[in-house]
Design a protein that fits this description.
- By secondary structure, the protein is of the alpha/beta class.
- It has 3 domains: about 290 residues, 2-enoyl-CoA Hydratase, Chain A, domain 1; about 180 residues, Rossmann fold, CATH 3.40.50; about 160 residues, Orthogonal Bundle (N-(1-d-carboxylethyl)-l-norvaline Dehydrogenase, domain 2), CATH 1.10.1040.50.
- Helix content is about 50%, strand content about 15%.
- It contains 30 helices and 21 strands.
- The strands form 4 sheets. It has an 8-stranded mixed β-sheet, with helices on both faces. The chain has a 7-stranded mixed β-sheet with strand order 1-2-3-4-6-8-11, with helices on both faces. A 4-stranded mixed β-sheet has the order 5-7-9-10.
- The two termini are about 50 Å apart.
Length: about 700
């Protein structure tokens, strides 16, 4: 028997049925609605073949290299219109995977590569799971990250296989676990060497077909289940996790507490009731505004990584970083992580060694998260080389400058780089606000210079602004874009402009926060307002994180570029004059013990009270002034064509500043409020506090950013 379909291929040889997922013209397999229906048909035919004795085992595999199944089709989730429709989609999928689970023959899933979402739910319905030990093999439930929960039985099967705590961690975090970690959790039964995986998995499947017996998988003891998941344990785990989620999300992400309850209640219920709860919750969550916004953010992010600029990208095999400080070391680690040899240069040997040590430390942490072997970690560390000269730079394909944020210093460094690299090497600056066009002046080949603005810390922040200077060539821009993608980042192309996109909008935000302090708002109340809005930290904690001295330099750049609307409140100059620098110095607007804030700085509080003028605004007014001020600046950025679309700007703000994803992005949030109302409120505030909040011309002329 042999049947072929577009995404699924089924063949039977000597009692072994092999079901291969292989989506045409795609790097990944997806569980679309059509694929699930076809799977149901093939499972029905397998039931009949098993009854006739023609099939004694089933092997499920992928035809993609190092990719198993990437989950559901996000487009189909985006168009769900009602809770009833979403619940029915979940129930139908559950029924199909229950059919797989109940097949009267042994079922084996062979996982090589990413096994995500619905793909993970599918393999959990099999009797046995084997996985390759390749670093790209990983298991993940990303559903709560887009505002839903696993809807094909994942909330039911996972805790029964792995235990309650591991299941909650997997589903609520959305993190990927390695094959090795998955085996420890009980989600994978055997690991095979990646180079021999297909052969080993095939041999095991043939053995199952010969014996015709279902394998006995690992089962947790009744005692362990009673202790770890009995009523007292379930109560404590639910209570503690609810508190943790509430503190972390401030109630903005409803899928997380709902998934928690569905998992805990489902574990204490008959499976039929557990499946019903899962489908009901999936349907209700699928139509929430948060879910729709998170799906939109996902789509924008995926689109951003695929929107390569025109031009022919060059291959990058060797890299260099000039500057061994925090940013330089972080960028160097990104290259080494991806297997690209990188030379780090600085003037002082001690600084070079400190930077290399820092990069190696980041690789140690990455190895722990990814489950690398000692050999894999050693191989990546070998990519790091430190030097105090430009020897060897003539062999490099790309050099990233990460020195002090001073134009004169950077110009001098750029001349040195150009004198020591080949004629084809890409030269990029990691500047956060300075002009790329100015850096290009006086160079012999300005067309190969651009900006690659990584955000701090580079190993965590997903965004890179790829900056086109006045003389940057298309090929240079295309190469820089591909470098960012290869380093695992999401690049957005921006036109050279003071502050580019992210820091320009942040400057408007932080400038307004300073004026609110001037008017008498307390540090705590101002930060609390924006934390409750959904920002990762309040604006004043952010000032301390960036460094008050750095913010002052960026502010001056913005004033030079755009005028008085970026002029800081006088009180901020008074704060800076006290000598506090922020977290890096242990004192800023807050006091610090290492990385932790230990309350506000009492001396700064006294200064603010002494210098305050006017009447403190309400928290609601403060939020409007800061957020609407960001929207106002974003409208100017679009009018000046610094970025190509509202979607690009929203990706930049979410990934570069942590603007709350559940709101869909800065400009999508603006559309949800109504640009007319925003314009009206900005006029009101401009009349009350000054012309910096006058509505931008482009804002007044728009009905919507996304229309």
């Amino acid at each position: 028997m042999s049947q072929a379909v577009s995404d699924l291929q089924l063949e039977v040889r000597d009692g072994l049925a092999i079901l291969t997922f292989d989506r045409p013209d795609s790097k990944v397999n997806l569980l679309t609605r059509q694929v699930m229906l076809r799977l149901d048909e093939l499972l029905a035919s397998l039931e009949e073949a098993a009854a006739r004795g023609e099939v004694r085992a089933l092997l499920i595999r992928s035809g993609k290299h190092r990719n198993f199944i990437a989950g559901a089709n996000i487009e189909e989730l985006a168009v769900i219109e009602s809770a009833a429709e979403g619940a029915e989609m979940s129930r139908r999928g559950q029924t199909i995977l229950l059919r797989l689970e109940r097949l009267p023959v042994a079922t084996l899933a062979a996982i090589d590569g990413a096994c995500v979402g619905g793909g993970l739910e599918l393999v959990l319905a099999c009797d046995f799971r084997v996985a390759s030990d390749h670093p790209r093999t990983g298991l993940r439930f990303p559903e709560t990250q887009i505002g839903i929960l696993p809807g094909l039985g994942g909330t039911v099967r996972t805790p029964r296989l792995a235990g309650l705590r591991p299941a909650l961690d997997l589903i609520l975090s959305g993190r990927q676990v390695s094959a090795k970690r998955a085996q420890k959790m009980g989600l994978v039964d055997k690991l095979y060497d990646a180079d021999r995986f297909d052969e080993e998995a095939g041999a095991f499947a043939q053995k199952l077909a010969r014996t015709g017996k279902k394998p006995g998988g690992r089962r947790r003891s009744l005692t362990a289940r009673a202790v770890q998941e009995g009523p007292p344990a379930r109560w404590l785990i639910r209570r503690f996790t609810h508190k943790t989620l509430a503190a972390r999300t401030k109630g903005h992400y409803p899928a997380l507490p709902r998934a928690l309850d569905v998992i805990v209640d489902g574990l204490a219920s008959p499976k039929e009731r557990a499946y019903a709860r899962e489908a009901e919750a999936f349907g209700e969550l699928s139509v929430t505004p948060v879910c729709k916004n998170l799906i939109a953010v996902y789509q924008l992010t995926e689109s951003a990584r695929k929107r390569a600029p025109a031009g022919e990208p060059a291959k990058v095999k060797r890299a260099g970083v000039v500057g061994a400080g925090l940013m330089g070391a972080g960028v160097a680690e990104l290259f080494a992580y991806q297997g690209i040899p990188v030379r780090v240069v600085d003037l002082d040997r001690d600084r070079v060694e400190a930077g290399i040590d820092r990069a190696r430390g980041l690789l140690d942490k990455a190895a722990e998260r990814a489950g690398w072997s000692e050999a894999e970690l050693k191989e990546r560390k070998k990519n790091l080389r430190g030097t105090t000269s430009y020897d060897g730079f003539e062999r490099l394909d790309v050099v990233v400058e990460a020195v002090l944020e001073l134009m004169d210093v950077k110009r001098q460094v750029f001349k040195q780089i150009e004198e020591n690299v080949s004629a084809t090497a890409l030269i990029a600056s990691n500047t956060s606000a300075l002009s790329i066009s100015a850096l290009q002046r006086d160079l012999g080949q300005p067309e190969r210079v651009c900006g690659l603005h990584f955000f701090n810390p580079p190993h965590r922040m997903p965004l890179v602004e790829v900056v086109r200077g006045a003389q940057t060539s298309d090929d240079t821009l295309a190469t820089a874009f591909e470098v960012a993608v290869h380093l695992g980042k999401t690049p957005v192309v921006v036109k050279d402009s003071p502050g580019f996109v992210v820091n320009r909008i942040l400057a408007a935000y932080l400038t307004e926060a300073g004026h609110l302090l001037q008017e008498g708002m307390s540090i705590e109340r101002l930060d609390r307002a924006m934390s409750q809005f959904g920002m990762p930290v309040g604006p004043l904690r952010l000032l301390d994180e960036i460094g008050l001295d750095v913010v002052a330099e960026v502010s001056q750049t913005m004033v030079n570029g755009f005028g008085e609307r970026f002029t800081p409140a006088p009180v901020m100059g008074e704060v800076l004059a006290t000598g506090v620098a922020g977290r890096k110095g242990g004192l800023g607007l807050y006091r610090y013990d290492g990385k932790e804030a230990k309350g506000v700085n009492p001396e700064i509080v006294k200064l603010l009270r002494r210098e305050a003028t006017g009447t403190p605004p309400s928290s609601a007014e403060a939020e409007e002034r800061m957020v609407f001020g960001m929207i106002n600046e974003a409208a100017r950025i679009l009018d000046e064509q610094v970025v190509d679309s509202p979607g690009t700007l929203d990706v930049a703000m979410i990934m570069g500043t942590g603007f709350p994803p559940f709101r869909g992005g800065l400009l999508r949030y603006a559309d949800s409020i109504g640009l007319g109302r925003i314009t009206e409120r900005l006029r009101h505030y401009a009349a009350a506090v000054g012309p910096r909040l006058e509505p931008a011309p482009g804002l007044e002329g728009r009905d919507s950013f996304y229309a």
